[in-house]
Fold this protein.
Amino acid sequence: MVDLLPAALQRWQAVEAVARGHFQRSGFGEIRTPLLESTDLFCRGIGEATDVVGKEMYSFLDRGERSCTLRPEGTASVVRAAIQHGLLSQGAQKLWYAGPMFRYERPQAGRQRQFHQIGVEWLGAESPRSDVEVIALAWDLLQGLGIGGLQLELNSLGSTDDRQAYRDALVAWLEVRVDALDDDSRSRLSSNPLRILDSKHPSTQALLEEAPTLADALSPASRERFERVQSGLSALGIPYRLNPRLVRGLDYYSHTAFEITSDQLGAQATVCGGGRYDGLVGQLGGPATPAVGWALGMERLLLVLEAAATADPQGVAARLTAGAVPAAYVVNRGERAAIAALGLARDLRRAELAIDLDSSGAAFGKQFKRADRCGARWALILGDDEVDQGIVRLKRLQGEPKEQSVALTAISAIVDTLRSS
Ligand code: ATP
Ligand code: MG
């Protein structure tokens, strides 16, 4: 688990602001659910056989002897809340969330035990068009951050029946080749065989080249649905690559599954993952409700964003990751000047300007160096002499040099000057 320091949070908030704008314009409303839920919610919602529930949850008994879990993902909680508050009887719900998630994993670059996701859930959306719309939302959000080198990978898991049929076919095929499987995959053969497709083990990977694929197991209706998703993406000019091995880690997916990966990340390349989960609402006790959504990992997104900023220092990503620059730096020395500087900074901040106020009392030269370093366009200079004359000197630090004196009381004139150039 990591601390987030101001420099990182500044970038973080820039990303969140961009995401918020996309959600607002697309009609998604924010939802916030508790970090702590009943363990049972995730067992029922995600599935006991998944890595997340089987190995990665932070679960404990509270003082009332109830088993509680720090949420490992957002979807189950959002669905629980929608059911609990009767939102589903009010028609389709477009919801988004952002916040920390907890999984007991092996920490490495792009993988933490407390990490953060931004996600959307569209409950009550059935048509292939809704799949296309949420994928486009993720794609446009990432593009809007100035991130290149992204790849959209797409698969269809079919209906529950398709998956069951495929599961049986895959198990039958693998059972006669069980000796060639790695240990992990062998134990998944009975518990969660589809996850074997996701194995990173080279020999298992090689074996799977020959295995029956999900695509072959799709019913005609599922296949047609998948084709409509693909033609929808093509119509919007969103490139994708079919990946018949793409299965999502969580149990509740059906039909469309997708991931967006970046060539800027190493092994942990997936920035965003999602898909359709038509069975989940019913499984959690709500009315049968089709749904589609995705979640993106904030930490990985920020890694990609920083790489994009380095690659193109003039681009959108660089602008978003740049630190905030104050409008002016107040250089001051002397007792009366210090008090006047404080008042001046306060007035300008009340006029919504960002002001850095030097509080060191150091020599003017030192203070000017700091003013230059912080990137402010103006230095406001106050010594006791200036205070006695009732003025402040404005010195432009960036661009063409310029200096002028203004009455200390003429706040709006100072504001105009700082704003204008
Ligand atoms: P992975 O295969 O990388 O473990 P996942 O399938 O478990 O990913 P999801 O549950 O789909 O991931 O979560 C969506 C996104 O959240 C991921 O694509 C990733 O960007 C991010 N994410 C998941 N687990 C972590 C983690 N432990 N640390 C940082 N980010 C994570
Ligand atoms: Mg995982």
Observations:
- The longest helix spans residues 6-25.
